[in-house]
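Researcher: Structure prediction, please.
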Amino acid sequence: MAFAMKNGEKVLFTGDSITDCGRRTEPSMLGSGYVKLFRELAIANLPGVSLEIINKGIGGNTVVDLENRWTDEMICHKPDWMSILIGINDVHRVVKKTEGWEELLPDKYYARYGKLLKRTAEETGCKIILIEPFFISRDKTDSYRGSILKNIGPYREAVSSLSKEYGTLLLKMHDIFQKHLGYREMETFCGEPVHPNHAGHMIIAQELFNLLKK
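Model: Predicted structure follows.
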């Protein structure tokens, strides 16, 4: 099987609670979500490949929070690969207009995210995977969920543009989950639209694994 990651490479995952998934209180420090499942898929499917997997997700993080800890928690590891999933908390805080929300608007998100990618490329030379922010809902009403869906578009577009600009791999998870919602109800994949359940995390891990086989 042709696979992009090679034996002995270090793979760092970072982001918010979707990546964190309890990793700071779990013995393996990988959490119970897609990071751990990705490692298990690699073990099951790549017998000749041993990867060092690091999870640095922290619940509640926005792109500003990543910026504040980028040197000590990401750059210092000098990974061969870095996967980044960030943005849904940015969207929520802008919609709610919580403290500091102006710093999380799409143009600021784009600029800060781009600065992180530039630093990563220059200081580590690692390969990068961007996972677009997603919201597992089809609510098009004027409800709060509808507001999130209406506002997530520019953040997804920012990630897509940054992927092209920096030559990264891109996993379009919002589109993937929307496709799944055409066949099964939301509760199949999550208890609420932000945080996937085990099945939802399995979809992320499997899609990430498939992306690296192409």
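Model: The mean pLDDT is 97.
Researcher: Thanks, that helps.
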